[in-house]
Design a protein that fits this description.
Blueprint lengths: L4 H5 L7 E4 L10 E4 L13 E5 L9 H13 L4 E5 L9 H10 L3 E4 L5 H35 L4 H12 L2 E5 L5 E5 L3 H6 L2 H8 L6 E5 L6 E7 L7 E7 L5 H40 L3 H16 L3 E7 L3 H18 L3 E6 L2 E7 L3 H14 L14 E4 L8 H18 L3 E3 H4 L11 H19 L5 H10 L4 H8 L3 H15 L6 H20 L1
Parallel strand pairs: 2-3, 3-4, 4-5, 14-15
Antiparallel strand pairs: 1-5, 6-7, 6-10, 8-9, 9-10, 11-13, 11-14, 12-13
Helix pairs in contact: 2-3, 4-5, 4-8, 5-8, 8-9, 10-11, 14-18, 15-16, 15-17, 16-17
Length: 525
């Protein structure tokens, strides 16, 4: 705490006596300054204890004293220290009355106490307070650094920061959503500030703003995170009053640590993207088993369930960057795995079918499409997306073609996003009733049907289950009630009998159509 008038009065060596404004002694003192000018206000900054002997003042005149004191009070002077025994043996009543009327503390300084002693006492107290603040700030830095190095995420760091500022703290992602908050109840309070965070995101980093929360009456400082062209998130710190020196050290340390963590995450993300690019290349080449081996734990879960392939294009890099950040934020909040591969103006994404990342992409597209025609389109909104139907690892090359077709349709229609289902509206099933199609299907499947008729397995049903599950071994095996190794053996037998590879997307398509044709034919008889 900085020195106050009360602490100076309690200083035993100064022997100060309160003559007016006893109820205002808690006022902080920023400095002690001696001046005998009739009007020292132009040289004051506010918060000073003004030391005077009234050499150039008629301190006995009530009007003069009233104007003098009112000017000082209006300038934010902390109080007046009047030295007696120099010009006046005691403080004139006119000055006492004027100080009481203005509510300005008035202290009597005895002749044996030099003004220099008061100045030294004030400066010493200020230096001690600053030392305590700096020491506390360094200790806060050490605590926050330990929390950041521990690698347990931002929660512990925010908890320590909130304790240091005697308030609350929250971390936002690049989309403006609350990632973590401390204490837990602060999450709802932080969510109300999302619009302010979004406005801060549009300013070059580093950026900050102070806002007020009308419901909690908190003073909230928002600090951007990141040092690049685009902010990578924001930190909110809510307190009941302005931050002191120690608290300011803690906030600045938190911003630096969170920015470094964000940069480290970006570097890690770059490595993940390179791995993801290798996985995607293998999938597009039909090497699904190799892709699974390379994917490991990082992307393996994504490949174990139906996913969508998205292709996004934008003439401005910021367009695909913003879409990527939007999808990343949604996936992070829901714990989804996302495979993203940026390639110049393009962005290719594998995302879980029906997941939050796909929903976030669709919402982003709706926002862009709902923008009034007369409203100018910002560069980061000029993005076009094509999305495939749900698929599995063995069908990625087909999904890529679907996404390309959907992207082309989106461009022609002036839409932000088009799904493959919209391109393929309608059904080809009625076409499968054609005699020529049925003859093709019977010819293609006959070797498998003859095999099954001899009681040596259920190759046709196994093939249907495997294709319907997009090549997902565990899911298809569960549908059939057999072990996945049994299913793998049956698919190898299918390849041997037909003399064709199931890794070929055209073969899979022909077999699926043949199965559909035989089903339609059986249903029609």
């Amino acid at each position: 705490m900085p020195p106050t008038l009360a602490s100076l009065v309690q200083h035993s060596a100064l022997k100060l006596t309160v003559r007016a404004g006893a109820d205002r002694l808690g006022t902080p003192v920023r400095w002690a300054h001696a001046s005998e000018l009739a009007d020292p206000v132009p040289y004051m900054e506010g918060g000073e204890l003004l030391l005077v002997t009234a050499t150039n003042l008629d301190a006995r005149d009530p009007g003069t004293m009233r104007r003098y004191v009112q000017r000082l009070a209006g300038a934010g002077v902390a109080g007046i220290g009047f030295g007696v025994g120099v010009t006046y043996e005691e403080i004139p009543p006119a000055l006492v009355d004027a100080a009481e009327e203005a509510g300005l503390p008035l202290l009597e300084v005895p002749r044996r106490t030099p003004f220099l002693a008061i100045s030294k006492a004030v400066s010493g107290a200020i230096a001690a307070d600053q030392y305590r603040s700096v020491t506390a700030g360094f200790e806060a830095q050490r605590e926050l650094t330990r929390a950041a190095v521990a690698g347990d995420g931002p929660a512990d760091l925010l908890t320590r920061l909130a304790a240091n500022v005697d308030g609350w703290a929250a971390l936002y992602d690049s989309a403006g959503a609350v990632v973590a908050a401390a204490p837990d109840w602060a999450a709802r309070r932080a969510a109300r500030l999302t619009p302010e965070v979004e406005r801060l995101r549009d300013r070059p980093a580093p950026a900050s703003v102070v806002v007020g929360d009308s419901e909690s009456h908190d003073r909230v400082e928002l600090q951007s995170l990141g040092a690049g062209r685009r902010n990578r998130g924001a930190l909110a710190v809510g307190t009941g009053a302005a931050l002191g020196t120690a608290e300011r050290y803690a906030v600045h340390s938190a911003v630096a640590l969170l920015t470094l963590t964000t940069a480290r995450s970006r570097a890690l993300q770059g490595a993940e993207q390179r791995l993801g690019a290798a996985v995607l290349r293998m999938l597009l080449a039909g090497e699904s088993d190799h892709a699974r081996a390379v994917a490991g734990d990082l992307y393996g879960g994504l490949l174990d369930a139906p996913f969508r392939l998205l292709i996004a294009e934008s003439p401005a890099a910021s367009g695909t960057e913003l879409l990527a950040e939007t999808m990343e934020a949604a996936a992070s909040r829901s714990g989804e795995t996302l495979l993203m591969v940026p390639e110049g103006e393009r962005l290719m994404v594998l995302a879980a079918d029906g997941g939050h990342a796909v929903d976030a992409c669709a919402a982003h597209a709706r926002t862009a499409d709902d923008r009034p025609v007369r409203e100018p389109v910002p560069d980061d909104a000029d993005v076009v997306v094509g999305m495939s139907a749900p698929c599995g690892p063995i069908a990625v090359s087909a999904a890529y073609k679907q996404a390309e077709q959907a992207l082309s349709v989106a461009r022609r229609r002036g839409r932000t996003m088009v799904e493959h289902e919209e391109v393929a509206a309608g059904s080809v099933l009625p076409l499968l009733a054609d005699d020529a199609v049925r003859a093709f299907a019977d010819g293609m499947l006959r070797p498998l049907q003859e095999h099954d008729a001899k009681g040596r397995g259920d190759l046709v049903d196994s093939l249907r289950a495997w294709l319907s599950r997009h090549g997902q071994w565990d899911a298809a095996a569960a549908d059939l009630g057999v072990h996945r190794h049994t299913l793998r053996y049956r698919m190898r037998r299918v390849e041997e009998i037909l003399g064709r590879s199931l890794d070929d997307p055209d073969v899979r398509m022909e077999l699926w159509l043949a199965l559909k044709a035989t089903s339609a034919s059986a249903g029609g008889r």
